[in-house]
Amino acid sequence: MRPLVARADGSVEVLGGFRPAARSGTRACGLEAADVIPIPEGCTLMHLPERRPLALDTRDRPIEIEADLLPVAAVLPVGYLRALLPASRPLPGSRRLPLFGYAAVVEHNGALKVAAMRTDRFAWWQPEHHGSAELLPAIAMARAALPDNRLVEHLTTCATDHRCYTAQNTFFRRYEGALPASPACNADCLGCISLQSDGAAPAPQPRMRFAPTADELFTLADYFLDGRDAAIVSFGQGCEGEALTRDDVLIEATQRIRASHPHATVHINTNGSKPRFLEQLIAAGCNSVRISAISFTDSVFRAYYRPLGYGLDDVMACGRVMAEAGGQVCLNLLTFPGLTDSPAELDATVAACVAMGVQQVQWRSLNVDHDWLIDVLSRAGHALDSGIRMPQAYETVRHRLPGVEHGNFTRPVRTGAPSPWG
Ligand code: SF4
Q1: How far is the CA of 113 from the centre of ligand 1 (A)?
Q2: Which of 9, 180, 270, 400 is the most buried (most CB within 10 A)?
Q3: Ligand 1 center to residue 306 CA distance, Å?
Q4: Å from CA of 175 to ligand 1 middle
Q5: Whose CA is nearest to atom 6 of ligand 1?
């Protein structure tokens, strides 16, 4: 295997005379054939500006590559999990990288390979089902059916400009539909894709600027769920803040959705900040939750989320209240090589999954400038140098949580599962 590097003009070349390197947190390591898979369809190569590539010399020592060469990273499509970070080092004063889940990439026998593993093959989310010529007519139909609903215009931008699959599916009236509910949030995550509060990196999906009414949420859900292959409506999308901050509006919309669509999965993606309110939402008809977390270690959680008025106890309680009501509990585990796969983090994650009644772990590559995150967490006292590698971490969690599903995507609540509304 050989390292890949880029020129400033974007051209990519193979670097001779060195072995490829990657990083697990702060630790540089070699890349072996077992660490990589063929680069999947839909993967994007990016060069990392204002950074130096690292490689291993003939004695396997990490060295910086001088000259005008830049590191190259791969950004994976959905359904794949990053295993190692790209081997790069930021130059003094370098700007923050845009929010992507950068993974190590190499050349091997004339082909590109990436440090990753496949975690889900759920047909709903395959790229070939999205971005088709049918999208614009589907948007036109929604506009005609819901002429005064601001969510239709908002999701049109998401579906076309940002190519969001959930927004596209909302218009196709199939699988999982988006119900973005809140322009505000009670956290300020380092990797928030809808708002970067210090403006140092662009947010890939600008935050929605209005607070939809219960009627707008319900009528869009009603339109979507009348589609033949529609199964789930989801509050809490990448283009918004925290849906649980919408209190009464969410409850009214959920009651109306449940009354009209008794078999639908009414789901919420959340930071898990408001368990008492989630309880009320469950009573209104919500039967599925996906709670996002980077870590169940308090200092890591606080350094990353910068939460306002809530803590890990609330996050754990959100899982518990849904599990006790008989609904579906998913954990959206925001992974970072060198952090997620450290033995202490794995112990905390497994314990939290048990306490929360998690039924499915969704393994996601955290989108963030890796060196910025490492810098923030090292100032909070975390060294990020004891990862056991992500594939081993994945297998460890699978082994220690028998009966728990692992993947990338939320499934509809199974028919026949106990439900809180009977
Ligand atoms: S909880 Fe979600 S919306 Fe709020 S800051 Fe974090 S990523 Fe952004």
Answers
A1: 32
A2: 180
A3: 10
A4: 24
A5: 189
pLDDT tens sequence across 17-71:
999 999 999 999 999 888 999 999 989 999 999 999 999 998 889 999 977 899 9
Cβ proximity of 159 and 167 under 8 Å: yes
Q: Which of 207, 234, 271, 308 to mutate to test the pocket of ligand 1 (most atoms within 8 A of CB)?
A: 271
Q: In whole angstroms, what is the distance from residue 140 CA to residue 331 CA?
A: 35
Nearest ligand 1 atom to the CA of 195 is 8
Tell me how far the alpha carbon of residue 194 lies from the centroid of ligand 1, in angstroms.
8
Give the CA angle between residues 386, 388, 392 to the nearest 5°: 160
Average pLDDT over residues 178-202: 95
Report long-range pairs for 395-403 (Cβ below 8 Å, ≥24 apart): 396/346, 397/346, 397/349, 397/350, 397/353, 397/361, 400/350, 401/350, 401/353, 401/354, 401/358, 401/361
Model confidence pLDDT, tens digit, residues 273-326: 999 999 999 999 999 999 999 999 999 999 999 999 999 999 999 999 999 999
The amino acid occupying position 115 is A
Does pLDDT of 204 surpass 90?
no
Cα(305) to centroid of ligand 1, in Å?
8
Q: Domains (ranges, CATH) in the chain? A: 2-118 (no CATH), 123-407 (3.20.20.70)
Ligand 1 interacting residues, C-beta cut-off 6 A? 185, 187-189, 192, 194, 241-242, 271
